[in-house]
C-alpha cells in the first residue's frame, strides 16, 4: 500500500483510496459523472435566476417618480 500526494491539496492518500481524504478530489483522475455537474449547475441557476430578477427589478424603476397631482398642487397654491 503506497501513498501518493493529492494533486490539489498535497495530502498523502492511499493509492487504493479513490478520493482525497482532505479535499475529496478524485485521486485517480476519475471525475464524477457529468450529470452531477450539470445537476449542480442547474441548482445554481434555479437559485440564481430569481435573485437576479429581484436585483434587476430593484435597479430598474418600475414607475416614474410621482409628480404632485393637479389637485394637490392647487391646494398648495391656495394656501
Ligand atoms: Zn486533496
SSE layout:
Elements: E1 3-5, E2 12-14, H1 34-59, H2 70-77
Antiparallel strand pairs: 1-2
The structure holds zinc ion (ZN).
The site of zinc ion (ZN) has 8 residues, from loops.
What does this structure look like?
This protein has a domain of 30 residues. It contains two helices and two strands. Strands 1-2 form a two-stranded antiparallel sheet. The protein is rod-shaped and about 95 Å long. Zinc ion (ZN) binds next to loops.
In short:
This protein is mainly alpha-helical. It is 43% helix and 8% strand.
Number of strands: 2
Question: Number of helical runs?
Answer: 2
**Fraction of helical residues:** 40-55%
- C-alpha Rg (nearest Å): 29 Å
Strand order of the largest sheet: 1-2
Strand content: 5-15%
Order of helices and strands: EEHH
- Which hetero ligands occur in this complex? zinc ion
Shape: rod-shaped
Identify low-pLDDT runs: none
Helix-strand category: mainly alpha
In this structure, how is the largest beta sheet organized? 2 strands, antiparallel
**What does the average pLDDT come to?**
81
The CA-CA distance between the termini, in Å, is 94 Å
Amino acid at each position: 500500500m503506497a501513498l501518493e500526494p493529492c494533486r490539489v491539496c498535497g495530502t498523502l492518500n492511499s493509492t487504493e483510496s479513490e478520493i482525497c481524504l482532505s479535499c475529496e478530489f478524485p485521486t485517480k483522475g476519475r471525475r464524477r459523472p457529468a450529470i452531477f455537474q450539470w445537476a449542480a449547475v442547474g441548482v445554481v441557476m434555479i437559485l440564481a435566476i430569481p435573485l437576479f430578477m429581484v436585483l434587476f427589478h430593484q435597479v430598474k424603476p418600475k414607475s416614474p417618480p410621482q409628480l404632485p397631482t393637479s389637485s394637490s398642487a392647487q391646494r398648495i397654491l391656495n394656501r
